[in-house]
Specification:
Elements: E1 7-8, H1 10-15, E2 19-20, H2 21-28, H3 32-40, E3 48-50, E4 55-57, H4 59-73, H5 78-89, H6 95-129, H7 139-145
Parallel strand pairs: 1-3
Antiparallel strand pairs: 2-4, 3-4
């Protein structure tokens, strides 16, 4: 009988220190909707259910939800979180694997920051050159409508 196959009365589950989805959400900082989503996509293993089919969560489940939330806060994509979770749960993991995932994510963030800084510079230039008065001519609209290569800043 697996962890998800155990059925309890709701009161018995709460009495044993398990918590319902609302309490798990509050303790982890993850919304009820996202908890269900993480379970549906397999980031969170199937949890114990009561006879009435309510989910009940153990301390370890809440800890896993906190891990996922922190990884999401740092911007890791779901596939990286899946790998990081597997590494976290594998006590004999090589830390080099974790570092490689984090390093790759960091490089992606740096690249996106540079792209955003370029966008800001472009918008600063355009807004500086727009008179912003009653005249219809507008360099911002001209730039948006002008020919350009897809995915590039002019």
């Amino acid at each position: 009988m697996g962890k998800a196959d155990v059925f309890l009365e709701h009161a018995d589950a709460i009495g044993r220190g398990l918590r319902d989805i609302g309490r798990a959400a509050k303790e982890s900082g993850v919304s009820v909707k996202m908890i269900r989503h993480y379970e549906a996509i397999g980031l969170l293993k199937k949890v114990t259910r009561t006879y009435a089919n309510y989910r009940v969560y153990r301390d370890g489940d809440v800890h896993t939800l906190r891990f996922i939330k922190r990884a999401r806060t740092l911007g890791f994509p779901m596939e990286d979180i899946r790998e990081l979770l597997a590494l976290w749960q594998n006590k004999s993991r090589p830390s080099a694997s974790v570092k490689k995932i984090a390093g790759g994510h960091m490089q992606g963030l740096k690249r996106r920051i540079l792209e955003m800084q370029s966008m800001v510079a472009t918008l600063e230039h355009l807004t500086h050159n727009c008179h912003g008065d009653g005249r219809p001519d507008c360099p911002i609209l001209d730039d948006l409508a002008g020919p350009g290569k897809p995915g590039t800043l002019r």
